[in-house]
Amino acid sequence: SSGINAEWPLRPGDDAGLDAIRQKRMAEMQAQGGAGGGGGAGEQAEKQARQQEMKNNLLTAILDQKARARLNTIAQVKPERAQKVEMMLINMHQRRQIMGQVGEAELIKMLEEISKTEPKGSKVNFDRRRVTLDSDSD
């Protein structure tokens, strides 16, 4: 009656329950992104590869061939802009704002809209100072 569980020293038959709890906890930790041991990095890479494949399949379904080619070209030059467009397309598809496939002309309109909202790159001004010791001004 000291408040200690009389069954505390686990008997050999209780290991299966303990192992099940450990496995469940490991699965929870890995789902949250914690590396449970050494195999977490491989699983994370596999998960990212699956997500990338799903995204590519969805974009292939959303975009026609010319629009997809244009988006791939943009991704090579400006990957951050291409990612913005991809996420925008996927979100619109999930909200059912896109019916059918998006053509190249519609993709260009979307790109123009995005470029209007993005801040312009920093501009460099050259301030050339005039030398006052010109011999021509005498």
Your description of this structure?
This protein has 138 residues and is an all-alpha fold. It contains five helices and no strands. Helix 2 packs across helix 4. The longest helix is centred in the middle third of the chain and has 23 residues, at 40-62. It is flat, with a radius of gyration of 30 Å. It starts with 14 loop residues before the first helix and ends in a 21-residue tail after the last helix. The model has no long low-confidence stretch (mean pLDDT 76).
Name its key features:
single chain; 138 residues; mainly alpha; 60% helix
Note the gap between the termini.
110 Å
Helix-strand topology string: HHHHH
What percentage of residues falls in helices of 4 or more residues?
Answer: 55-70%
Q: Tell me what portion of residues adopts beta-strand conformation.
A: under 5%
Shape annotation = flat
Average pLDDT rating: 76
Rg on CA atoms, Å: 30 Å
Multimer state: single chain
Report the strand count.
Answer: 0
- Biggest beta sheet summary: none
pLDDT < 50 stretches: none
Question: How many helix segments?
Answer: 5
Structural class: mainly alpha
